[in-house]
Amino acid sequence: MKDEFESFAIGLESPPQGGFAITPDDGTDLPFVTRAINCGAAGTLHVTLANGSDVTLTIAAGIILPLRARRVWASGTTAAQIVGLH
Questions:
Q1: Domain range for residue 76?
Q2: Model pTM?
Q3: Which residue stretches belong to region Disordered (predicted)?
């Protein structure tokens, strides 16, 4: 399929180019720093952001959060069906 935008540079304002399922883990960083995270089931999301900050957010189901996260922690995360977009 032809991609009419393939010659354009990808910036932070660009839509994500890929995605992956996230299994929260207290000891392992994600394979990619995300551009956004989607949670299919509501709950809390404990993440380490790209700059090293740890935050816990309350998430509604189906929301896409523009987060540059490098880890999703098992402890403190109750949201489910988590997808990272990069």
A1: 19-85
A2: 0.89
A3: 1-24
